[in-house]
Amino acid sequence: MKKIAIIFGGNSSEYTVSLASATSAIEALQSSPYDYDLSLIGIAPDAMDWYLYTGELENIRQDTWLLDTKHTQKIQPLFEENGFWLSEAQQTLVPDVLFPIMHGKYGEDGSIQGLFELMKLPYVGCGVAASALCMNKWLLHQAAAAIGVQSAPTILLTNQDNQQQQIEAFIQTHGFPVFFKPNEAGSSKGITKVTCVEEIAPALKEAFAYCSAVLLQKNIAGVEIGCGILGNDSLTVGACDAISLVEGFFDFEEKYQLISAKITVPAPLPETIETKVKEQAQLLYHSLGLKGLARIDFFVTDQGELYLNEINTMPGFTSHSRYPAMMAAIGLSYQELLQKLLVLAKEEGK
Q1: Known binding site: residues?
Q2: Banded model confidence at residue 188, pLDDT cuts 50, 70, 90
Q3: What CATH number does residue 198 fall under?
């Protein structure tokens, strides 16, 4: 296994997050003792064109790579060759493993995974069904409930619903604060914490801007705990982390700027709670058919109750992101983590 294709970018609200994650991983792989032959494949933000990029890595980091036309050439899947076709060079590119470092829509929802399945190429991460399920928060919570893992009380709103009556009934039962969340979006995009009636309409509008279905969810008073898992059948469980906030919630700005948020890894949890988090995370991982990697996030209340929040099948992947930090806390370096993911992809793709 030597030829690795890193896939980045794409038509997602998390496009810039993909660039940051991919840049960090590429730097680590370029300096790896395993001497990989890397191909960098960027997908334009409109998703219309794919390019093989051979220019400076800093241009990916700064999102100027598409302007570097001397080092971009169009590339497209070539199914009959199980690889890609470079039209300008009139040649094929056949990687040993694909590493899609893409977040959110089209990157984590099973879309690109389905393409890779048609190409018959091994790829890092979860398969089509598991990716699609975890991206759809409503379906994820139904599946989790079926195996005994609880989530916060939630209802699903669509544009066809009688929203006002549903919202009023939900708030009458559960009170404020509540959260409005796009059903399919990542990095806390489009999420609003609502504390009064006047905030409902703008919160609903914001959430619907990202997705045609919106979750209305009860606020769970507790600490957000993450659990990173690595593996296919045999699992490596990273250290849990804990997020503490001075105010607000862990939204997009907090996730990537840490304005008032503090992430502690390992999380200062009682042993019984930590064990329960890891057990439920592994149960979800196996039951939902996850492969390669995932970060599974819970809320833990003062009473020790666990509520599933979400599952990220391609969590943020800079060297200082939460998932790599969880693995580093158990002695697995960033480069070692990348190597293991590539090996797992090759094993799963056999």
Answers
A1: 297, 310, 312
A2: confident
A3: 3.30.1490.20
Residue range of the domain that includes 172? 154-218
**Beta strands across the sheet bearing 213-218:** 154-158, 213-218, 178-182, 192-194
Of the candidates 190, 282, 291, the residue with the CA atom closest to the CA atom of residue 231: 291
> Are 241 and 263 a contacting pair, CB within 8 Å?
yes
Tokens of 120: 């018959």
Looking at the structure, do residues 147 and 158 belong to the same domain, yes or no?
Answer: no
On the CB side of 186, CA atoms within 13 Å amount to 28
Residues 6+ away with beta carbon under 8 Å from 316: 17, 20, 21, 103, 187, 255, 322, 323
CATH number for the domain that contains residue 288: 3.30.470.20
Asked whether residue 36 falls in the same domain as residue 181, the answer is no
Does residue 247 lie in a domain region? yes
CATH number of the domain within which 32 lies: 3.40.50.20
Beta strand 235-237 with 50-53: parallel, antiparallel or unpaired?
Answer: unpaired
Active site (catalytic) residues: 14, 187, 321
128 inside domain: no
What pLDDT digit, counting tens, does each position of 17-33 carry? Answer: 999 999 999 999 999 99
| Per-residue pLDDT tens over the stretch 58-87 | 999 999 999 999 999 999 999 999 999 998
Separation CA 215–CA 194 (nearest Å): 13
Total number of domains in the chain: 3
Residue numbering of the annotated binding site for Mg(2+): 297, 310, 312
Q: How far, in Å, CA of 281 to CA of 306, rounded?
A: 11
